[in-house]
């Protein structure tokens, strides 16, 4: 027993001697100073902030009109599908008015059909004549432009350039036209091209319902084309006497313009006459009162407008889900009165979230779209999720007197357990240098603008060595750009 205790004491004594020797040597060698070695490592710069999980889609809903709640079909926390009805107002009165308006519309349509079936043939003839005249007017206008006037243009349909010239052998004579007039003509030719294309498309959809309105549009189009032709005629008439060496050609130009203007003017006159004939078509006596077909068509349109208005009012008594999601607010009560525009239902998308955080102006300059992000949640403290910065709001927001900017982070692999409103601790990697020379920041001395270390150059000797610093990581490690090499030891 004594022998065992003696050996144990001897071992403890020996260890104590070794520790004392190490401490003494250390003090003698470093004078109580610590040392650090230059090593290669990764330097990562991060900005750490706290954010909140928010849904990609979130909407507050209310009725567009006041009334009493008729039905509520969901409760808070329930999932809804796009288009699913959530709540309705009591719409009994509107529904009754709508049924009445639909009956009136049906009645007016029947009367219109009877009028058209029993009206004198001249009404039908006038309708057909106006239809044909609209199409003939388009043909006249199209011919006037493309076959008579476009000879004065280059690229008449795409990029019209008004240019009148005559080629004689190797000589080209250009007629001088005021610049402002040329610009005006070019712009009007572009406008005419759009008119002709639109008019041609409209001729394919003319019906008895839009005959009069199409005639009015055609007359307006012809008037616009006529003004364009007036400008071209003005340009031709500016040719100076010196140009009369080409008198025959100039006269041909003037004839072409005159013919084009005549075609368009005649089309306007013919179209107006055809429209007037339809408006003055004979009427038919029904129940002792004279009603024209056109007047009855107006009544049909009025009834259609009434139906449309009531259907719109009925739609305003229904709230439907605009997208798939979960109900986060539901304050509606059956029989309760609600005001127009008051929010009492909220829906958030359920499987699409982002994290929103505020970054102070001190750090916002470091953050860029695409920066990688590591995220942990208070709800899942031992798990780390990966993400990326996908949005930086351009406008600032003031928080406690400090300028901040909102950013949004997308998770790379979102999970259903991540819910709206969770607190997220995020670290945004703003920069990274791999395999670079590093030292702990506390091993470096700064005096004014001078940055240096005390480099150990021999046993017991040190040398003041200026260095250049690079990136600093959040853990206190700093990149050494110059002044030291891997393996160098510094004292601090």
From TrEMBL:
Superkingdom assignment: Bacteria
GO molecular function: transmembrane transporter activity
Keywords, sorted A to Z: Coiled coil, Membrane, Transmembrane, Transmembrane helix
Pfam families linked: Beta-barrel_RND_2 (PF25954), BSH_RND (PF25917)
Annotated GO CC locations: cell envelope; membrane
Residue ranges of domain CusB-like beta-barrel in the record: 355-430
Keyword set includes Transmembrane: yes
InterPro entries per record: Beta-barrel_RND_2, MdtA-like_BSH, RND_pump_MFP, UPF0194_transport
Compartment annotation: Cell envelope
Signal peptide: none
Cell wall biogenesis/degradation is among the record's keywords: no
Transmembrane segments annotated in the record for this chain: 9-27
Residue ranges annotated for the Multidrug resistance protein MdtA-like barrel-sandwich hybrid domain, each copy included: 64-342
Protein family (similarity comment): Belongs to the membrane fusion protein (MFP) (TC 8.A.1) family.
NCBIfam families: RND_mfp
Full protein name: Membrane fusion protein biotin-lipoyl like domain-containing protein
């Amino acid at each position: 027993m004594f022998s065992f205790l003696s050996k144990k004491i001897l071992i403890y004594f020996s260890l104590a001697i070794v520790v004392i020797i190490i401490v003494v040597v250390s003090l003698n060698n470093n004078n109580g100073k610590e040392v650090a070695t230059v090593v290669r490592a990764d330097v990562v710069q991060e900005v750490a902030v706290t954010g909140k999980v928010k849904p990609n889609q979130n909407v507050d809903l209310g009725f567009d009109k006041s009334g009493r709640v008729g039905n509520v079909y969901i409760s808070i926390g329930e999932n809804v599908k796009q288009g699913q009805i959530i709540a309705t107002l009591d719409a009994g009165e509107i529904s009754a008015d709508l049924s009445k308006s639909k009956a009136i519309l049906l009645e007016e349509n029947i009367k219109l059909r009877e009028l058209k079936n029993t009206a004198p043939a001249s009404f039908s003839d006038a309708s057909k004549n106006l239809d044909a005249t609209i199409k003939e007017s388009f043909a006249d206008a199209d011919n006037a432009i493309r076959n008579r006037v476009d000879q004065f243009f280059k690229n008449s349909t795409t990029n019209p350039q008004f240019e009148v010239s005559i080629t004689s052998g190797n000589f080209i004579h250009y007629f001088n036209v005021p610049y402002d007039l040329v610009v005006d003509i070019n712009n009007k030719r572009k406008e005419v091209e759009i008119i002709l294309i639109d008019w041609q498309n409209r001729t394919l959809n003319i019906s008895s319902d839009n005959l009069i309105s199409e005639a009015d549009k055609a007359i307006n189009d012809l008037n616009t084309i006529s003004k364009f032709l007036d400008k071209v005629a003005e340009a031709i008439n500016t040719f100076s006497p010196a140009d009369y060496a080409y008198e025959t050609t100039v006269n041909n130009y003037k004839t072409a313009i005159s013919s084009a203007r005549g075609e368009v003017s005649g089309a306007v006159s013919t179209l107006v006459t055809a429209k007037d004939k339809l408006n003055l078509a004979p009427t038919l006596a029904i129940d002792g009162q004279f009603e024209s077909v056109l007047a009855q068509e107006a009544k049909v349109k009025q009834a259609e407008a009434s139906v449309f208005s009531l259907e719109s009012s009925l739609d305003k008594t229904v709230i439907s889900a605009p997208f798939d999601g979960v109900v986060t607010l539901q304050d509606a009560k059956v029989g309760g009165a609600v005001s127009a525009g008051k929010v009492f239902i909220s829906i958030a998308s359920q499987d699409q979230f982002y994290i929103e955080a505020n970054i102070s102006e001190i750090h916002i300059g470091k953050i860029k779209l695409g920066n990688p992000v590591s995220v942990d949640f208070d709800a899942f403290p031992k798990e780390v999720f990966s993400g990326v910065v996908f949005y930086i709001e351009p406008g600032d927001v003031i928080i406690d007197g400090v300028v901040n900017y909102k950013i949004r982070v997308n998770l790379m692999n979102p999970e259903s357990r991540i819910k709206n409103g969770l607190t997220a601790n995020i670290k945004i990697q703003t920069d990274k240098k791999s395999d670079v020379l590093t030292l702990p920041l506390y091993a470096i001395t700064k005096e004014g603008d001078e940055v240096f270390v005390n480099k150990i150059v021999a046993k017991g000797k040190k040398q003041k060595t200026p260095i250049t610093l690079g990136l600093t990581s959040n853990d206190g490690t700093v990149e050494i750009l110059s002044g030291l090499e891997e393996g160098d030891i510094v004292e601090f």
